[in-house]
Amino acid sequence: PAPRTVLLTGAAGGVGTLMRNLLPAFGYELRLLDVRPIEGDPDAVTADLSDREALREAVRGVDAIIHLAGISLEAPFEKILKANIEGTYNLYEAAREEGVARVVFASSNHAVGFTPRPQGDDPLIPIDTPRRPDTFYGLSKSFGEDLAQLYWDKYGLETVSVRIGSCFPEPTSVRMLSVWMSPADGARLFHAALSAENVGHTVVYGSSANTRLWWDLSSARALGYEPRDDSEEFAEKLIAEQGELEPDNIAHAYLGGAFVSDPPIWPY
Ligand code: NAI
Ligand code: 15L
């Protein structure tokens, strides 16, 4: 049967707020969790990913989990370790103990951020490109993908790991023209990831069907995802403001944009 009740972790964040508005139209009943209180939903769970008892209670009875909670940018290793590495482990343990069938894991392009971006006629980056994290943040997403593989192989807990590009209402940099995932396409992709059958552990890139796309969306399409948006309508304005990407600029040369520099610099 199709999943109905879904726990959305990180529900107070940017993507969480977009998704809690968009996903109910696909028929899901959402349970929300975040360390920050969520106004307007008295049933929302306010809990930290370090609280294993709270996680067990929060996952009890749900059909699936969309795991967005965590630190979403580069940060000191100790913080990434606690929120993203230990936190994701704690969530998977709770899911395993409570028999939750599937997780949709918000991975990131920064798990492969040191991959050179395609230029000219270069082929699109395949989904099985070697992982090359560009930050401790990207490293934590690489860990999450491996954790997901372990829980599938050992316990039969399914995951779709979505290497999200940039999910914001609009792209705000020239790089984002290539990696942008419109919120509406994001909801379509999360729906496909929740409802496709027999996913085992599947890794997909998460973006719209952008004219300037850098990666291969076929593993996402194989789940039934049909993107409808394209960032190209924003291209003229962004390029006029920021100029084209330059091959010699280190912040323009890799998938991860300016996350590859130390420290990461805006705009990425
Ligand atoms: P965000 O930073 O706006 O939201 C993350 C949420 O997680 C926040 O509401 C925060 O309070 C919560 N959180 C942080 N630590 C927590 C903890 N220890 N326990 C419970 N909750 C905690 O990030 P955003 O942009 O919404 O991203 C959501 C997820 O998607 C993140 O995992 C991020 O790494 C991933 N992602 C997002 C991309 C984007 O374009 N927005 C791109 C690639 C990945
Ligand atoms: C991410 O992983 C971040 O969470 C998000 O804030 C954006 O920076 C995005 O990647 C990006 O690469 O643009």
Automatic annotation (TrEMBL):
Transmembrane segments: none annotated. PANTHER family: 4-EPIMERASE, PUTATIVE (AFU_ORTHOLOGUE AFUA_7G00360)-RELATED, NUCLEOSIDE-DIPHOSPHATE-SUGAR EPIMERASE. Gene3D superfamilies: NAD(P)-binding Rossmann-like Domain (3.40.50.720). Belongs to the NAD(P)-dependent epimerase/dehydratase family. This is NAD(P)-dependent oxidoreductase. Residues 6-167 form the NAD-dependent epimerase/dehydratase domain. InterPro entries: Epimerase_deHydtase (IPR001509), NAD(P)-bd_dom_sf (IPR036291). Keywords: NAD, Oxidoreductase. It comes from the Bacteria. It holds the Pfam family Epimerase.
